[in-house]
Amino acid sequence: MITGYEGEIVADPVAADLVRLTVRTGELPSSTGTCETRTQMEYQRLVIGEMDLLLPATTRQRFVMRNGAEGENTATFSSCREYRGESTLRFLEERETETASVSAVPKRAGGLPGNLPVRLDLAAPLDTWTASGGEMIVLRLAKPIVGAAKQVLVPAGAAIQARVMRVQRFFTKPERVTVVVAPETIERAGAQLPFAVRPARFAELHFVGDHVVLPKGYHTIWRTAAIANP
User: Would you list the DSSP string of 164-176?
Assistant: First the structure.
């Protein structure tokens, strides 16, 4: 719904940085059940690695309802960090290209069939107060991955690199926490190979409590997903 609004900007006269941004709507239509909303963002300048960034420190959105009730959502940005990835670009000579083109292509990247049971344990505790989306964590294969012919495809103890996709805290009564984790690679014969799980390639874990810490060895049950060749 499009509505009128007004607001104000507060800036640092010396650094010329934005300090505060406030936006207030005009009176909202009765169909919204709301009289007005007010959003206020407090900004901070952070130096992360080689980056100098101006980011919101706190954002508050306040709702005034038509029945006299008021509500406020508060989001705080903290523990910002820099993530980096490494890659290698290699150009093949003509002869190498010909050799690569006639090489056999495996039917599944990593050689793991789909729908095999997998139990993964946390290699280190995961503190939901300090963990953040984007960081990598290590899981361990608690039991070997066994194929249909009872052969061991990946031995127990293999390392799995997983990415924390989201950490979300709900200030309800009781308080709750949601952690979303997606495995990306698995160690096999000294190499890191693509690794995916089904049905959604990630796990959404829900916990009740304020300060939730997942202990080392916390285990989750998955099933493998075959990765299609590009």
Answer: EEEEEEE-SSS-E
